[in-house]
Amino acid sequence: MTGPLRRRGPRPLPLHLGLAGMRALAATTGLAATPWPSGWPHSNAAWPISKAGQAERARILGALAAGGHRPDALLPAVLARLARADRALVAGIAAYRRHPFARDAADPPAIWTEGGSRLLDHGGEGPAVLFVPSLVNRAYVLDLLPGRSLLRWLPGQGFRALLLDWGWPGEAERHFTLTDYVAGRLERALAAAPGPVVLAGYCMGGLLALAAALRRPDRVRALALLATPWDFHAGPDGPRRARTAAALLPGLDALMEPTAALPVDAIQSLFAMLDPFGVAQKFRAFARLAPDSDRARLFVALEDWLNDGVPLPAPVARQCLAGWYGRNEPGRLAWRIAGQVVDPAAWGGPAFVAMPERDRIVPPASAAAAAARFTAATVHVAAGGHIGMVAGTGAEAALWRPFQAWLSALA
Q: For domain 110-235+311-410, which CATH number applies: 1.10.10.10, 2.60.120.260, 1.10.260.40, 3.40.50.1820?
């Protein structure tokens, strides 16, 4: 592929290449180190360890035997398959890094600013909906592309759309706690908005929105949580996964020391470990797309957003990893903002909870725990994943229209 390099991602690139290499190494080491005993393919050899792996191995060896091949043909076949996968991965990464797409959407005017934060007004006539994104990703995922922008779609449906852009954390913000963000910056943004508003939080932003709504019910007429975690230990794998994340905090402290923030690449690494081989798989698929197709353009736009992350202030990183993941403070009703316990049951207004059915970042059981505590909530299970629900090809049907219907019913 020719053309100039336009981007460095996927970030962190060494991690993603290393994970792909580890997967190949594990496969070839296991095959090369395990002698195929006599009596194949009905051997009870110990490798692979899992029953599913042993069954798949037996199936493959049986197919080789049926085709008149010896079992030692398996290793060369696996090596050839791995080589094809590696070539596809490199081709996908190269195609992404050279793709000509560049997001050129102009930001709407800001009606309020403080530090690096802005309240962006996407216009529209009617009740105001104020969106609160996560602190670790750029806010423009909700305004990604023409035709893929919830913030530019809602004004056409009779609502005024506002977006809180947290901005890049400066020297002051790097010492912020979650209380500083909620009881300080978010509350002041609410005060500047034409309220009372419908407050809609996405992912981590949903937790911040809930806490702000409980503190300032006079400024919030309804609350929406979109792909928002609550019980961080929910689900069969929840406790192990959450405590594994919390156990990384001592090592991450050294990374946060120089800048008083958790670096973007460290945050990206934490997300990558939720699905260690998923990044390589999606770039192999991208290599098969026509570069000028709408799907390729959307892929690049989303990857650019993912790689355009924001450092997380060190106090907030410690609160999230130790408090949310380690001690499950929200789910145990032990999370406090400015001394006040944050509990969905204390919200007395209308509520909307949207849960993607395929969400690796926020398992549905985690989000459902918040929905169960509301006195009355409209619960919507959206087709798609964590990001696809808000900005994917099916986002309008998956989330936008059900959300708009709930907003319209409020009147």
A: 3.40.50.1820
